[in-house]
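Appendix C reproduces, verbatim, an entry submitted by the partner laboratory led by Prof. M.T., so that reviewers can inspect both the input and the predicted structure.
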Amino acid sequence: MTAWKMSGIREAAHIMKTGGVIAYPAEGCFGLGCDPLNRRAVLRILKLKHRSVNQGLILVAMSFSQLRPWLHPDNAGLLKQPLRSWPGPFTWVLPASHRAPSWITGAHSTIAVRISAKPEIVRLCRAFKGAIVSTSANPHGRPPATSRAQVTRYFGRHIDMLVNGFPGPLKQPTEIRDTRTGEVLRWQSTSIDNSRDPSCP
């Protein structure tokens, strides 16, 4: 594993592919990311955040093709609204495919996903060639990190890389909406601690 440092997109993708954990600029704060199929890396992020695996995590991608393997094949009727809102800062909860492991879905049969327009995320997912974990860079109960210095204070060398860049202008967490019911699980205008990811990404 590489030592903690600031660096670029291709190296960050390589670190995730080899089981590492990175911090990267998201829509409104820094996020922690890893390969969602690497259980050890995901559990490492959850330990850093003091977060229960039962809550589930968000996956972020650059295109729908990167999300398709994670979604139940019968989702076609539920995709109209999500596809209309993407790419953008909107997270949707959809029925998960059998490929989605419990350390990502938590205690749910669904999965929270987003297609981002944030340039650094787009480049990360392109280089990684798939969707990545997206959860705010903060221990539970602390505000999400909005600067590189804050990421360093929270995690120091317990992460493997801090990707160059700055968070986007979003001032609140991305909205989370359940596609099956239309219920808003988290509004952008407020921060709600719920069973899904109470985090900026």
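The longest helix spans residues 39-49. Additional entries are available on request from the coordinating office.
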